[in-house]
Design a protein that fits this description.
The protein is α+β, with helices and mostly antiparallel strands. It has one domain: Nuclear Transport Factor 2, Chain: A (Roll). Helix content is about 30%, strand content about 25%. It contains 2 helices and 3 strands, in the order E-H-H-E-E. A 3-stranded antiparallel beta sheet has the order 1-3-2. Strand 2 and strand 3 form a beta hairpin. Helix 1 crosses helix 2. The longest helix has 19 residues. The protein is globular and about 40 Å long. The mean pLDDT is about 85.
Length: about 100
């Protein structure tokens, strides 16, 4: 299993195997839906922004699961862990995925 924190990172061209998959997962998680020309469904929706923390977490987990399944099925979602700052109301996900070595 590999842990991915949703921090933007530079794109490296020419990757293959697990490195390519992990970069794709990071790209999905750090892209706001509606910002990619010609593929407005790509990325994570922010429509639940400013909702209560529990609601936001539940909706974000659903978004993460569905987007990874759709755009990077070689990454199997295993766990989403949350860092929560109750004072500021901010939450940050860390995602653990397993690479599907048996094909899609």
């Amino acid at each position: 299993m590999i842990k991915i924190e949703s921090l933007p990172a530079n794109v490296t061209y020419g990757l293959s195997g697990a490195s390519e998959i992990m970069q794709n997962v990071r790209t999905i998680l750090t892209t706001r839906r509606g910002t990619v020309p010609l593929n407005r469904d790509f990325g994570i929706s922010f429509e639940f922004l400013d909702s209560p923390i529990n609601t936001t977490r539940a909706k974000a987990e659903q978004e993460i699961f569905l987007q990874l399944k759709k755009y990077e099925p070689r990454a199997i979602l295993k766990q989403i862990m949350w860092e929560t700052d109750i004072i500021s109301g901010q939450i940050s996900p860390s995602v653990k995925v397993e690479i599907n070595t048996n094909g899609v």
